[in-house]
Amino acid sequence: MLKLIKTINEQYHYWEVWNEGKTIIEHWGIVGNTGESKEMKVSLFHRTNKVMGNLADEKVKQGYVFLDEDQLPEIIIQHSNEGLSMEEAFEKRNQVEELINECLGWTGNGFVDGGEMEVESFLTNVFCPVVDVEIACKTILKELKANHLIDGVTIAYCQPERSEEEQDEDYDNPYITLYPEGGKIEF
Description:
By secondary structure, the protein is an alpha+beta fold.
């Protein structure tokens, strides 16, 4: 999959392309919106990676840049899972991972980069590199509410690294809570 991004009128615009066999899927829009997509068949005489690369080159000429996923801010979705068994907490975390990966991906705003479960407390964490933290939080909350997965959730993002001069008294906790107000991420 190739992912590119461009800022137009203070909004992030995404364009991405991937293949499923000899079919290429292009997907584009404004970050936070589902956008549009189209499929095209690649003949047996063409390599899909070459066709995808040519399409990406055209987007670069239009001002798009390749998205550096390692530089994206990270959102963490933590569930307390009180009253659930370990198996139920694990199932819930898997459900959250699939749901959020789908909604962030189709809105051009990121992906799920894995999860973990604290064995003693059953706290589950899902990690999501995102393009726009505020829009991603709204998308995540909407999906969790619609799928009855909002109970016991805390959503935060990892603040960027700062030099010693820039650090304040709260910098020892790298996470800034987005939801609920006053909530805290536990480790």
